Every structure is written in structure tokens, then in C-alpha cells.
């Protein structure tokens, strides 16, 4: 059995990044349901992220999304974050909310529009320089709705050219995270639809380009942990966007829809000894809380990832290997299931207490009075949301 102290040590080192946009108002294409107390500014989103870190102890970075988090002085924003005990994580680019991008951004047939989109990618590197961020995250909504609408292969060439420009602009310790998504908003063909496309572009770019796996961006039934294992083996897994899906890109709380899948993913991470931050994988959340309270939902998600990780760390690796090598199908499966079926909540509560945290972060948040405070302070109706 794994040494309980080693398990706790690994959990102490775990880091999960929360998304600034998860604190803001969001919705489906049918309706945004605004919530009281939601941040009005990037600073207020960071303040909420700092609260999540305060109660969980393992979420010390917050990802920004530009232009949703546009400010005049990014250095000042980074200092503001540091004063609150967090730092700026990945800089997410946004080339999907501009009239000009109707037919694509970096793959658009119009070179002027491609220039505009690529300039935004380069601007994001300036923001990384100013904030100290190491991760430049790309998700391209680019694609086409009808066969023949544009040339599939030309679009790959245009994509490669834009990626190359951004890559060449990176500093020594900065890198690209290239996210893929099966479909939406394009319905016939998406330019970066799957991990293979992302991986191929990353290989072509070089060592500073890695794949970001958004758990909500696959066809139903996709074996995501296989993708994790494959990319880890190639040294090309850079990050996760964790969230849950039942149908498409639902952006529900991580670990809510399928905690077993989250466990299987985290097991591949543990199997590769890739949990520690020194390994360089950025474990981010990418979620929207449309009908539930946002800060408690993000705390819950962080805890769900932590629970899945704790279970993965409990896998008896020696026993698993022995069973696998003996061809003991049921025995090997049982080793994994024993770990998954362990109730890790008491151990995590103990760990939090040892680290000076409340054993129940959600309850502690509710008791803290922070929600009441932000509802009172942010009552002027200028709440941030998608596009703000
Ligand atoms: C696209 O669906 C995505 O997953 C990308 O990561 C975007 O940056 C994010 O959602 C926007 O919410
Ligand atoms: Mn995402
Ligand atoms: Mn998504």
C-alpha cells in the first residue's frame, strides 16, 4: 500500500488554477442569469480567486482571459494579485467574439483579419511579460459550417503560420498551450478539432508548445485518460481545462458528471509522476456557473479534483503491476477500484487541519461572511460577464 505520509506530501504540493471568467456572470446562448455579488472588474475576479485559495490552500493561481480581463496596467494587476496571495496563471486569448471572426480568426481567408487575430496572440505575450505568466493559451473557434465553404488544407497552413509567429515571440520560459475542441461554434469542420491536430501542430512548433486537454471537448465515450497517457509519454501534455459534461461543452463543475473519469485521468498523471508542479502540467478549471453560486462551486470543483487525486495516489502500484504482469485481469482491475472506492474525505479533512485550513472549505466559506460582503459592496449592477 502507498505510504500515507507520501500521499499527503503529494497532495500538499498539488496546485489547481481557477479561471477568472468562472467568477463572472455566464449563461447559455438562451439566457444569462445574473447573480448578486459577482465581480465587476478583473481585480474583483482575482479577489474571489484569492478566497478560493484561502479556503482550499491549493489554488494559488488565476487564469486571465483577454479582453474580458483587459486593464491598463498588467504589472499593477499582477502586484494586486500577489498582495492577495495569488499570482496570474495562463493568459487566454479570445479571437472568437469579434464580428471580424465570423469566417475564422487565424484561419480566415482574409489576410487582414488573420493579421488582426495574430496581433492579438502577440499582445497576449506582452501581457505575459507584464504579469509574469508562463502560459499562453489558445483556443480557436475557427472552422466552417458547410462542405466547400473554405479549403480545409489552406486553413491548416494559415493556422500553422499564426502559431509560428506567436511561438517565435515567446520568451525563454514561456510556452503555448494549444486547446482543441470537437465542434462548436463551427458545425461541419473545426480547424483544431482533436488532440491529434493539436499535437501535430505542437510537434511542428517545437518544445515550447504543448497540448491543453479540455475535458468537455470530446465526443461522447472518448477515452480521455488514453489521450493523457499518450501525451505524457510524448512530453506534450501541457495543461488541463477541467470541467464536466453530460452532452457537449457543458462547462459544469469538474468531477460532477463523472468522478470516475476524473479519477482515471488523475491516475494516469500519478502513474507518470506528473502531479508535482515541477513537472510543468497546469491543472486548470474552465467552468461556468450559470445557476449555482460561483465561489462555492469553484471551491467544490477544486475539492473534487483533490479527491480524485487522493484516490489516484492510493492505487497500490506494486500490486497493480504484479497483477498486470500475471495477466490477472480481475485482480488488476480490483486494485484500481479499491483505490477509487476509498473514502478519502477524512484524510483530506485531516490534511487541511494539519495545514491550518478548515477541514470543510465550503462550510468555512459560507460562515466567513464574504458572500454577504460582496453582495453588499458590488450592488451597483455593473457585474462582469461574457464579453465584459
Ligand atoms: C472553449 O469552449 C473554451 O473551452 C476555451 O477554453 C475558451 O477560452 C473558454 O472555453 C471560454 O469559456
Ligand atoms: Mn477550455
Ligand atoms: Mn469549452
TrEMBL record:
<protein>
    <submittedName>
        <fullName>L-rhamnose isomerase/sugar isomerase</fullName>
        <ecNumber>5.3.1.-</ecNumber>
        <ecNumber>5.3.1.14</ecNumber>
    </submittedName>
</protein>
<dbReference type="InterPro" id="IPR050337">
    <property type="entry name" value="L-rhamnose_isomerase"/>
</dbReference>
<dbReference type="GO" id="GO:0019301">
    <property type="term" value="P:rhamnose catabolic process"/>
</dbReference>
<dbReference type="GO" id="GO:0046872">
    <property type="term" value="F:metal ion binding"/>
</dbReference>
<dbReference type="GO" id="GO:0019324">
    <property type="term" value="P:L-lyxose metabolic process"/>
</dbReference>
<dbReference type="InterPro" id="IPR013022">
    <property type="entry name" value="Xyl_isomerase-like_TIM-brl"/>
</dbReference>
<dbReference type="Pfam" id="PF01261">
    <property type="entry name" value="AP_endonuc_2"/>
</dbReference>
<dbReference type="GO" id="GO:0008740">
    <property type="term" value="F:L-rhamnose isomerase activity"/>
</dbReference>
<keyword id="KW-0479">Metal-binding</keyword>
<keyword id="KW-0413">Isomerase</keyword>
<feature type="domain" description="Xylose isomerase-like TIM barrel">
    <location>
        <begin position="49"/>
        <end position="247"/>
    </location>
</feature>
<keyword id="KW-0464">Manganese</keyword>
<dbReference type="InterPro" id="IPR013457">
    <property type="entry name" value="Rhamnose_iso-rel"/>
</dbReference>
<dbReference type="InterPro" id="IPR036237">
    <property type="entry name" value="Xyl_isomerase-like_sf"/>
</dbReference>
